[in-house]
Amino acid sequence: MDIIISRMNMLDVTEVMELEKACFTSAWSEAAFIEELGREYSYVLVARAEDRSLAGFVCFWRVVDEMHILNVAVREDLRRKGIARKLVEAAIAYAGERGALSATLEVRESNTAAIGLYTSLGFVNAGIRKSYYENPRENAVIMWIYDLSRTGRKSP
């Protein structure tokens, strides 16, 4: 599937919020996404389908030399089409080009599809955060790519 990836702007916030609410039981607020737009270390990339509708997004921070992926969401009808992979690859490349040397994220322990995706992208399991998630309460798997220079990805 062809998608276009770009940085989120204020015009994207309403659609991003709709997708956030559809994907997560503990959704971020609209104010939180607007706040991310104003942070110099925060990036939200959006993926748009051929019809220009929002297909997904990834939110991440680049702090000093580390990238932290905070949130990845893909529209339910477009899952399993490589969109999450393209978003995470773009985020890794984007952060790497801006000085990130490593990347980390947390993922629900039960989200085997996401864990499989992250593993295929070079993330390794680095431990568990007990009771990290709410609604429902669940452990998080902590995952890392310790050396982003080995990924060789270029940003969009």
Number of strands: 7
Shape: globular
Question: Which percent band covers the strand fraction?
Answer: 35-45%
Return the domain count. 1
Q: Could you state the oligomeric state of the chains shown? A: single chain
Task: Tell me the CATH topology.
Answer: Aminopeptidase
Span from first to last CA?
Answer: 16 Å
- SS content category: alpha+beta
The overall average pLDDT, rounded, is: 93
| Number of H- or I-type helical stretches | 4
Uncertain spans, ≥5 residues at pLDDT below 50? none
> N-to-C SSE series?
EHHEEEHEHEE
State the helicity in percent bands.
Answer: 25-40%
Order of strands across the widest beta sheet?
1-2-3-4-5-7-6
Rg over CA atoms: 15 Å
Please summarize the sheet with the most strands.
7 strands, mixed
Quick one: CATH class?
Alpha Beta
Write a compact overview of the structure shown.
The chain starts with a strand and ends in an 11-residue tail after the last strand.
Word description of this protein:
The protein has 156 residues and is of the alpha+beta class. It has a single domain (4-150), classed as 3-Layer(aba) Sandwich (Aminopeptidase), CATH 3.40.630.30. The chain has four helices and seven strands, in the order βααβββαβαββ. The protein has helices spanning 13-23, 30-38, 83-97, 112-120, and strands at 4-7, 42-48, 54-63, 66-74, 102-108, 124-133, 138-145. The chain has a seven-stranded mixed sheet, with helices on both faces. The longest helix is centred in the middle third of the chain and has 15 residues, at 83-97. The model has no long low-confidence stretch (mean pLDDT 93).
